[in-house]
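All the exercises in this workshop are built on plain-text protein records. The record below serves as our worked example for the rest of this section.
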Amino acid sequence: MRPLRHWVIAGLLAVLLAVFLMSGPPGSAHADQEDGRLDILFGRLAVTADAAEARSLEAAIWRIWLEPRDAKLESVMARGIAAMNGGRLGAALAFFDRVTREAPGFAEGWNKRATVHYLMKDFDASVRDIARTLELEPRHFGALSGLGLINMALERPAAALRAFEQVLMIHPNAAGARAHVKRLRDILEGDLRGDET
């Protein structure tokens, strides 16, 4: 029993060290969705059965996604995120408008703007920005989750289910997506049973 636990801990430490080394020193590099480290991280994310490792991999992916190649936009992104987290949605939208205008190939700028539109209940605008995010980064499980939430809000359970199932294909340990999939399948199966009576 003890050697197995030792092996698991050693394996996890090795993965965490690899993620740290792949991430590089804080603030030293500018990446985005085209960063080569992502392929390794996504490959591991798809196969790990360890929830703690999955969380570490997810965090490493988000760190890379949040790094615009243009260093000048780092502070704009940070100010937009701070405004969004503080509930100042109009200001956040202005910051992310600037990011998408100045770096139209930066997926996370579109994803953050989609999130602001979602919080403002402008679902059509959010879906447009999600579509752009996914054009640039088809593996963006955050954008797919947002699409699922929008479809839930619009009472489109089948479309929401498809979005959350796509999340799980990329990130099988995404607990929120798994919970939504279960709930949506229950809803859809209940609807089918109701149709049969």
Remarks:
- The chain is about 75% helix and 0% strand.
- The two ends are 53 Å apart (CA to CA).
- The first helix runs from residue 2 to 23.
- Residues 1-29 have pLDDT under 50 and may be disordered.
